[in-house]
Design brief:
The structure holds two protein chains of two kinds. By secondary structure, chain A is α+β, with helices and mostly antiparallel strands. Helices cover 44% and strands 17% of the residues of chain A. Chain A has six helices and three strands; from the N terminus they run αβββααααα. In chain A, a hairpin with a 5-residue loop joins β2 and β3. Chain B has two domains: 240 residues, Aspartate Aminotransferase, domain 2 (3-Layer(aba) Sandwich), CATH 3.40.640; 143 residues, Aspartate Aminotransferase, domain 1. In chain B, α2 packs parallel to α7. Chain B is globular, with a radius of gyration of 23 Å. Classes of the chains: A alpha+beta, B alpha/beta.
Chain lengths: 145, 401
């Protein structure tokens, strides 16, 4: 059901772990729905994401999208990282089964949440960044039914 | 050679050689329609008779009380819908449990939309219904009690004989979904006062797409499939002769060796429960420890999610199943695990192994090693586990101070 890329990122996830004294940390999802993603960002003075780590509780797709999202934002500036959408994550993984699309949304949301945390800590405004929703599933349920 | 360890026998089983051999003559050789008058047809008719007798004997029923269906789901649908319709004049209340298979639960929902009332009995943390609650739920307009013999996810075996006695005392019909129990534990429809019983072929090493519904003589039940006079006019359609022959052979084998087979499975089951329970931290056995199917092992592992666990087990050649949402296609984890009181996050982290007599202790040793490794790996990636560890560090600090 999963592409080879998804299986690769699931079985050998990149950037698993924590960053101590991270510039920004974002946690999204909830245990009730079975997936939680936490992303740590280390951002330098030029607003470049020096390092990015994640921890995820969730299915194969949740782990793979977290892994891919961290790969996509690493080394990028904040502006560039803002362009990493769920679609970009999905494309980079050669697609996801329809029921797993929400995992890629979660990954995008987790990056945004970590950036939001960074912006708040540093009193800056990141263009186009909105306060992250704590639970993306509520909206999704409305869309589906 | 890639190793394959099959531990998902509650999903389906390997078709027994005896079953396959019993089926083969009814494809190319004896392909006649059992309803036909000529010799070729009567060979097929004979096959139905042999299988029906074998099955009837296995539950203490009469052959004419066994109706072949396309499987467990059809049997459950039939038992509920046709009985509800036939007894609607008496009342429109049905009692079932919260942990039934969807073939029962969704049929109950269907009936609710058509004016029937359904009481869903609670279960305790082991998955057992309360007989007192059952008795309290019975009303003058109750027409049917449907409680499964054993649960497909957690393996808990219900007190079927006691339920039957209560049903009989209140003159309410009793149906049991025995799809998981049949062939694994002895069930006698007389001793347990069962009026209807559903079972399936492929759960006991028979072919897929075949099952039966036992309907006690005298119970009113409408025909479920309308058409020809097959199955005493209650279930029309030319019989699936090869599948029925294979089912009969599987039943014979399952009941001939039930004692020795289940003894072996129980030993393997207990070994797996003991080792996982004692060697993997933060896990919980789901289902009753002893009132349990001989081949069922179901654990919840905290801080991790079931689908990830299944994929990693699959990479190691181990087939298992989970009650996580991701394996069900919805956001909610298994209704059974929620009904026994597991919080969502623990229900998402459940893992079911269902053994067969073909499994070996050596295989299970490998499985335990894999489970330990995978659970540890997934926990090292889990933000829930990270929070838990930080919290316990904090607690330790507080204690020290």
């Amino acid at each position: 059901m999963y592409s080879e890329k998804v299986m690769d990122h699931f079985s050998n996830p990149r950037n698993v772990g924590e960053i101590e004294n991270a510039s920004g940390v974002g946690t999204v999802g909830n245990a009730k729905c079975g997936d939680i993603m936490r992303i740590y960002l280390d951002i330098d003075e030029n607003h470049v994401i020096r390092d990015c780590k994640f921890k995820t509780f969730g299915c194969g797709a949740a782990v793979a999208t977290s892994s891919m999202a961290t790969e996509l934002v690493k080394g990028k500036t904040i502006e560039e990282a803002m362009k990493v959408t769920n679609k970009a994550v999905m494309e980079a993984l050669d697609g996801l089964p329809p029921v797993k699309v929400h995992c890629s949304l979660l990954a995008e949301e987790a990056i945004h949440a970590a950036l939001w945390d960074y912006a708040e800590k540093n009193g800056i405004v990141i263009e186009g960044l909105e306060k992250p929703k704590s639970d993306i599933h509520e909206d999704e349920a409305e869309e589906e039914y | 050679m890639d190793r394959l360890i099959y531990l998902d026998n509650a999903a389906t089983t390997r078709t027994a050689k005896e079953a396959v051999e019993a089926m083969l003559p009814y494809f190319e050789e004896n392909y006649g329609n059992p309803s036909s008058i000529y010799g070729l047809g009567s060979k097929s008719k004979k096959a139905l008779m042999v299988a029906r007798e074998e099955i009837a004997k296995s539950i203490g029923a009469k052959p004419q009380e066994i109706y072949f269906t396309a499987g467990g789901s059809e049997s459950d649908n039939w038992a509920l819908i046709a009985t509800a319709e036939a007894y609607a004049f008496k009342g429109k209340h049905i009692i079932t449990s919260k942990i039934e298979h969807h073939a029962i639960l969704h049929t109950c929902e269907y009936l609710q939309k058509r004016g029937f009332e359904v009481t869903y009995l609670n279960v305790d943390e082991d998955g057992l219904i309360s007989l007192a609650e059952l008795e309290r739920a019975i009303r003058p307009d109750t027409i049917l009690i449907s409680v499964m013999a054993a649960n497909n996810e957690i393996g808990t075996i219900q007190p079927v004989a006691e339920i039957g006695a209560i049903a009989k005392a209140h003159q309410v019909l009793f149906h049991t979904d025995a799809v998981q129990a049949y062939g694994h534990i002895p069930i006698n429809v007389e001793e347990c006062h069962i009026d209807m019983l559903s079972a399936s072929g492929h759960k006991i090493n028979g072919p897929k797409g075949i099952g039966f519904l036992y309907i006690r003589q005298g119970v009113k039940s409408r025909s479920f499939i309308h058409g020809g006079a097959q199955e005493r006019s209650r279930r029309a359609g030319t019989e699936n002769v090869p599948a029925i022959a294979g089912f009969g052979a599987a039943v014979k084998k399952a009941f001939d060796n039930m004692e020795s087979r289940t003894a072996k499975e129980t030993e393997l089951r207990d070994y797996l429960i003991e080792r996982i329970g004692s060697e993997v931290p933060h896990c919980k056995l789901n289902g009753h420890r002893d009132k349990r199917l001989p081949n069922n092992v179901n654990f919840s592992f905290e801080f991790i999610e079931g689908e990830s666990l299944l994929i990693m087990l699959d990479m190691k050649g181990i087939c298992a199943s989970s009650g996580s949402a991701c394996t069900s296609g919805s956001l909610d984890p298994s209704h059974v695990l929620l009904a026994i009181g597991l919080p969502h996050e623990k229900a998402h982290g459940s893992l079911r192994f269902t053994l067969s007599e073909e499994n070996t202790k050596e295989e299970l040793e490998y499985v335990v090693d894999c489970v330990k490794e995978i659970v540890a790996k997934l926990r090292s990636m889990s933000p829930l586990y990270e929070d838990f560890c930080k919290k316990s560090e904090d607690t330790k600090c507080t204690v020290k101070r």
